[in-house]
Design goal:
Elements lengths: L5 E4 L5 H4 L11 E6 L3 H15 L8 E6 L3 H8 L4 E4 L6 H10 L3 E5 L9 H14 L3 E4 L6 H10 L18 E10 L1 E2 L2 E2 L15 H4 L1 H12 L7 H4 E13 L1 H8 L12 E2 L2 E14 L2 E12 L5 E7 L3 E6 L7 E6 L5 H14 L8 E4 L4 E4 L8 H17 L8 H24 L5 H5 L13
Parallel strand pairs: 1-2, 1-4, 2-3, 4-5, 5-6, 7-13
Antiparallel strand pairs: 7-14, 8-9, 10-12, 11-12, 12-13, 14-15, 15-16, 16-18, 17-18
Helix pairs in contact: 4-5, 5-13, 8-13
């Protein structure tokens, strides 16, 4: 294939820049950027410039920026690369992906690929067209590369440690994943300014359609590791609920840099506050196992986004916990306390077997559970995971035949989960009084954050 040459199309999200946080062998340093001449494009260029000028491990990217009203037509006409990088407004993303594939270009696209249930058939057609044209459509699934997630998958797959899945119930599922994100935080050491459209769910999507993509992918990797999943028969969606987050106009000014609420967000204004998607929960069955996904958005970051996961097996319960400003931690507890000693033995053997990949991995016996001790040099953060995703993509781009056969079916499965959850969320809204959902987070007991002023 030769050089991988990036074309960044309409970069509206900071993840578009994080793809280039580090230079990678085989990726040409000259990148073409096509987009409107707006704040999103300018912010993207500024982030790349900071990577080039940082004192430690600077990059050497060259940007050719095509900022104009007809950027999409120019991109199709000129095509100065072979890989389209997409991370921006979520609603039109599937259309841009279709254009790229139709022109024989690979696609490296940030989640979510789709946010509307009606777009699911388009995704099916897109993946089929990519196969026919022998191009890659790759999802930027950074959470696969978090080491506690990787180790949890390994432990769940070991029957001597985990046993088999507890099926659970809707009230106490066999698998629970929870992700907490924050609107006001730092990215690459800089305060993050979010565009106004981030708060318009018609453009950005519901939290479950966006962040839920990561959780759905992790759930599939735990329950059906490296296996094809038939979304028609293996998944039964059950319910979805939500509790919105209210933002004051001062907070909106702080996080966007704008003077106040914009007219486009008028449908989401209630009692002088902006109603954001906030806390959303989806429950479903995956190959008989009850699964709950919980996406949470809060106002102020105490240090980093947070991830939690509990997998319940017949022998043990494997849990990821994370405290504010701390990395996630992995623990394993015996389902029956009398089996604790045997479980510690099995965990020590497992850690020994993983020394080739993770030298220094060990387990600490806390009496009631085993805490997996991960050497600091194996830790990495969310921004560093983009390099791991890119390494995977580079390998597959040079030899598409090495892409695992199950990836396509699991891509469809995760977007089936997220978009069907959106359908259930909207159905729940329709059953309430007209202003029920919009104001429930603003009246007594709601999740209204403190003012940023």
């Amino acid at each position: 294939m030769g050089w991988i040459r990036f074309i960044t199309l309409a970069p509206g999200h900071f993840h578009a820049a994080l793809v280039q946080k580090y230079s990678r062998p085989g990726v040409h340093p000259r990148v073409h950027v096509y987009g409107p001449l707006d704040d999103d494009t300018l912010a993207h260029c500024a982030r790349i410039a900071r990577f080039n000028h940082r004192p430690d491990n600077p990059t050497a990217w060259e940007l050719e920026v095509h900022a104009c009203s007809d950027y999409l037509e120019r991109f199709v006409r000129e095509q100065p690369g072979n890989t389209v990088v997409l991370s921006g407004r979520n609603r039109p993303k599937i259309g841009w992906m279709e254009v790229a594939v139709a022109n024989g270009l690979h696609v490296l696209a940030d989640k979510p690929w789709i946010i509307e249930p009606d777009d699911f058939p388009r995704l099916q057609r897109l993946l089929h067209a990519a196969e026919q044209r022998e191009v890659i459509v790759w999802d930027i699934l950074t959470e696969r590369w978090e080491i506690t997630n990787w180790l949890q998958r390994e432990f769940v797959r070991d029957p001597d440690i985990f046993g088999t899945w507890q099926v659970g119930t809707p009230e106490e599922p066999g698998l629970v994943l929870r992700s907490v994100h924050f609107l006001n935080k730092l990215v690459s050491g800089q305060p993050l300014l979010r565009p106004w459209w981030w708060f318009d769910r018609r453009i950005a999507g519901e939290a479950m359609a966006d962040v839920g993509t990561h959780l759905a992918d992790l759930a599939l990797g735990l329950v059906a590791p490296d296996q094809a999943v038939d979304f028609r028969n293996d998944i039964q969606m059950l319910s979805a609920t939500q509790q919105p987050l209210g933002l004051s106009e001062d907070q909106f000014r702080h996080i966007t840099g704008l003077r106040g609420f914009v007219p486009e967000l008028e449908p989401y204004l209630q009692q002088g506050q902006l109603v954001y998607c906030g806390d959303q929960v989806a429950t479903f069955r995956l190959r008989g196992v009850y699964v709950r996904l919980n996406t949470v958005w809060e106002w102020q970051s105490p240090g980093s986004d947070m991830h939690e996961c509990t997998a319940r097996g017949t022998r043990s319960i494997i849990t990821i916990r994370q405290q504010p400003s701390h990395p996630p931690e992995l623990s394993v507890s015996a389902r029956h306390p009398s089996d604790h000693a045997e479980l510690m033995k099995q965990l020590r053997q497992k850690c020994l077997s993983l020394q080739r990949e993770f030298a220094g991995l060990s387990v600490a016996d806390r009496g009631y559970e085993g805490h997996i001790q991960i050497p600091e040099h194996w830790r990495s953060n969310h921004e560093d995971h983009f390099a791991a995703v890119l390494d995977d993509y580079i390998r597959y781009a040079h030899d598409p035949s090495t892409i695992p056969s199950w990836e396509k079916s699991q891509a469809l499965a995760r977007y089936f989960i997220t978009t069907q959850a959106v359908t259930l969320l909207r159905a729940g809204q329709e059953r309430q009084p007209p202003d029920g959902v919009s104001t429930s987070g603003l009246a007594g007991g709601g999740r209204t954050p403190p003012s940023s002023s």
